[in-house]
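I am still getting used to backbone structure tokens and would like to learn alongside you. To get us started, please write out a protein record for me. Start from the sequence, derive the backbone structure tokens from it, and show both lines together. Once you have written the record down, we can walk along the chain together:
***
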Amino acid sequence: MFVLLMLIALFLMMRGMFKIVLPVLVLLLIVRVLFGGLMLLLSPHFLGTVLVIAFIVWLVKASRGPRFN
């Protein structure tokens, strides 16, 4: 599949249509990165990991007690 996409891109570049194709590919890449980041943020595994780390940090800070200078 990757080789086919590369051959198509090479053909389009040789034909001089990369002015049209390149912005579309860049736009698709940006949309894919943004969508992937959103899916990561909404993932239960990611949220669970963040909650566990936040709880551990809170527990360590609470166990040290108040510090008065």
